[in-house]
Write a structure and sequence with these properties.
By secondary structure, this protein is an all-alpha fold. It has 6 helices and no strands. It starts with a helix and ends in a 9-residue tail after the last helix.
Length: about 190
């Protein structure tokens, strides 16, 4: 009885979360740019870019939040705390490593990676506690992951591709320069 009731409650929560997050994600993905222009005027282009990139990842972020709350309601506060602690370590390390080099795009990546980690950790624990795999939870997690991939794909033509190519090009150029320097070639003309 109790397990069936819990499963039904989780199912209802996941349906509502899925509907709302998919709608919000689609709205931000499609109209993120115009919405940012409306709210921020001529300074809205960058905010619009981030809204557009984060839009497809919203179902995952909402799922993370809902599963976190469900875990706490089921008495799994220690597990939530443990995962949150590791998440904080990952965020701090990610910000320290990526923010100086990539700016806000690096921070955006840290946010997405952090959401994926926390969602997977909490969802996995929730499934172990409930003892069964609610089909909607698996579908929502898969959908959220898929939306995250769609977000990365959408960000590629919006500038992510250029960033990756620039990073890879800078790494190759740096390696070539170090190689030439260590072999005694300065690259300049000798007179």
């Amino acid at each position: 009885g109790e397990k069936k009731r819990l499963s039904a409650l989780l199912d209802r929560m996941l349906r509502l979360t899925g509907y709302f997050s998919a709608l919000a994600g689609a709205l931000f993905w499609v109209w993120g740019g115009p919405l940012a222009d409306l709210l921020y005027g001529e300074n809205g282009a960058e905010a619009g870019f981030y809204l557009t990139v984060l839009g497809p990842a919203m179902p995952l972020m909402y799922l993370e939040s809902m599963v976190d709350g469900a875990m706490k309601g089921m008495g799994e506060q220690k597990a939530v705390f443990r995962y949150s602690l590791w998440d904080a370590v990952l965020r701090i390390a990610g910000v320290m490593l990526l923010l100086p080099r990539f700016g806000m795009r690096g921070f955006l990546f840290v946010i997405l990676l952090s959401s994926v980690y926390t969602c997977l950790a909490n969802t996995g624990r929730l499934l172990r506690v409930v003892g069964e795999l609610p089909l909607r939870l698996a579908a929502l997690a898969a959908g959220g992951g898929g939306m995250g991939l769609v977000g990365a794909a959408a960000a590629w033509p919006l500038g992510l591709g250029e960033e990756v190519r620039a990073i890879l090009g800078a790494e190759k150029a740096g390696k070539s320069a170090r190689k030439m320097k260590s072999s005694g070639h300065s690259g300049g003309k000798r007179v």
